Amino acid sequence: MADNKVSSAAGARPATPASRIGALIPGILLCIGIAGISASLEGVERHMFAHPYVEALVMAILLGMAVRSFWKPSERWQTGIAFSAKQLLEVAVMLLGASISFAAIAASGIALLAAIAAVVVIALAVSFGLSRMLGLGTRLSILIACGNSICGNSAIAAVAPIIGADSDEIASSISFTAILGVMMVLGLPLLIPLLQLSATQYGILAGLTVYAVPQVLAATLPAGLVSTQIGTLVKLMRVLMLGPVVIVLSLFASRWQGSAQKKSSVGFFRLVPWFILGFLALATLRSLEVVPASVVSPLTTITGFLTVVSMAALGLGVDVRVLANVGGRVTAAVTLSLMLLLAISIGLVHWFK
């Protein structure tokens, strides 16, 4: 028996860097193909109407969802699709830092910083209260509140080990996030003409309501660079609220964890992802003029293309039929929490004229 285990272990060869890269290629090429079609359709719009009514990144999401509705990518494609949806978009967020100066943060003032903190605290309390009123458990209610109020799946992943959430609770809390995230990216720009929002106001609104930092980039690119910069800054400030929330929850973790469980520690890079550190590093270098202004435009172009590729991957990962499998109370809790967060944020942005 021991010999069999040794021979089996010896026969199992670890994946080489070349094999890992090779596994990514099919899915990445598929996403690039959808992104290329989307960019071409946007080019046709520009030629015919002088302005694209549907941006390439929106078309990439819709095309990806259309493909996913009649074809489920196999494992051969999934690795590259997942890489495009997450890592490529994180790279795009990091590169965005090269176009931002910390002077913009200083100009935002204490009022905006305080308002962001207040919105997060209010959204946490309201989301948790709604979830409990709908009959959801304490731990699931905490996960939904943190996901909606701070940064979606990243917040859920950070908080789950602190409160001892099980796999069913984690899966239930994130099952609706992908679809709502896509809906926010697609629908939020429609509020610009409807509410007559300025670039600054829309950037604040996107930063306060969109789930993830990369999705803020996708939601604000159609509105211009100013909205993208402000939205990203606001979202980063919102993400930084995760640290205090995790600390507070850890103080009460024993209430939700079983007596036999030990408190799980959360590493620094779970609270502050690498791409946010990269974003801050590039923003620092840009503020110090180490990054010259001449490279900002090329980096912005690269960022835009990577975002379109990632939106194609995001669309390929969304199965609209999953709505039928999500519990009604969870769906109601997440949707109502997001609607209330949106209402609070709209009221706030009208205050910042």
Architecture overview:
The protein has helices spanning 2-11, 17-49, 56-70, 75-96, 103-133, 138-151, 153-163, 167-174, 177-187, 191-195, 199-209, 213-220, 225-239, 242-251, 268-271, 274-287, 296-316, 328-351. Helix content is 76%, strand content 0%. It has 353 residues and is mostly helical. The chain has a single domain (26-351), classed as Up-down Bundle (Na+/H+ antiporter like fold), CATH 1.20.1530. It is built from 18 helices and no strands.
**3D shape:** globular
Distance between the termini: 74 Å
Helical stretch count?
18
Mean pLDDT equals 77
- Find the structural class using helix and strand composition: mainly alpha
Low-confidence runs: 1-11, 258-264
Q: Class, according to the CATH hierarchy?
A: Mainly Alpha
Oligomer: single chain
What is the topology?
Blueprint: H1 2-11, H2 17-49, H3 56-70, H4 75-96, H5 103-133, H6 138-151, H7 153-163, H8 167-174, H9 177-187, H10 191-195, H11 199-209, H12 213-220, H13 225-239, H14 242-251, H15 268-271, H16 274-287, H17 296-316, H18 328-351
Short synopsis of the structure:
This protein has 353 residues and is mainly α. It has 18 helices and no strands. The chain has a single domain, classed as Up-down Bundle (Na+/H+ antiporter like fold).
Offer a few descriptive terms.
single chain; 353 residues; mainly alpha; Na+/H+ antiporter like fold; 76% helix; globular
